Structure prediction request, 252 residues.
Amino acid sequence: PPFPPLPGGGRPAGTKWEQYRAAIRFNDRQLERIQEKLEELQIASRTLWVVTSDHGQSFGEQGREGHGLSVHQEQVRVPLAFVHPARLAPGVRTDNAHHVDLLPTILAHCSLPAGPGAIAGRELLRGPSGPGRALLLDRYLYPRDSDVQRYRDSFWVALIQGRWKLACGRQPDAAAACELFDLERDPFEETDLSSSHGEQAAELKQALLALLRGQMRIREDLLRRHVHAGEPGPVLPDRETLRRLEALGYVR
Prediction:
C-alpha cells in the first residue's frame, strides 16, 4: 500500500515526506517478515531477492509533487538491489541499468534458458554495462490522467547517455526544443546546457529519435501480430479494480 494501514483507515499524521518515510518503514517490515519465513523454511540461502521500484516520488522538486508527472531524476532514478548471500558478494555499482535488464539478469543468475526469440536488456551481474549505453525514459500517460493539461509542459521523454541527459517536453521531432543536463555536476537538473553544448545536445537528440523510431517499429510489429492472430484487444479493468488502482495512485 502507499501508506501503512491504520486502525479504522486513514493515513498517518505528519507531512507527506513523513508519511512517505512511514510507508517505507512499513514495507521494510513486510520484507523482513518474508525473510524470517524463508529462514524458518530453511530456503533463505537459495532465494534470490530482487528489490526495485517502477518510479520515484517528487516532493516539491521542479515545483511538483507525486509521481508519473515527468522524467525528472527524482521520478525515474530508482533503487535496484540483487541479494543472494550464498552466491553474490556485497558490492555497489554506479553504472546505469534499465528495468529491461531484470529478466536476462535473473535468468542468467538462475541458469535458466531464455527461450525462443531475442530478449531486450543486458545481463548485469557479470560486469558494468558500459558508460556509453543509452537509456530511454518515457512518461506513461494514464487514460484518466487529470494532470495532462496541468503538466503538459513537463518533460515526457528523455535519453541518458553517460553523464548527459537530454529531456524533451513531448515526443520530439528534429525541430523540438529540448534541455540538456550534466548529471554529474547537476544531479537536480537545474541548469540547461543545450545552448552552450549544442553539439552534444544535437547528438543526443539524434540518438533519442533513433530509439523512439525503433520503439515504434516494435509496437507496430506487436500490433500486426495480434491482429493476424485474431487475439482480443485490451480488457478494461472492472470498477473494483479501478477503485484499488485509484487508492494506490495509479488512476486519477
Summary: The helical segments are 16-40, 73-76, 102-109, 198-229, 239-247. The chain has a mean pLDDT of 78.
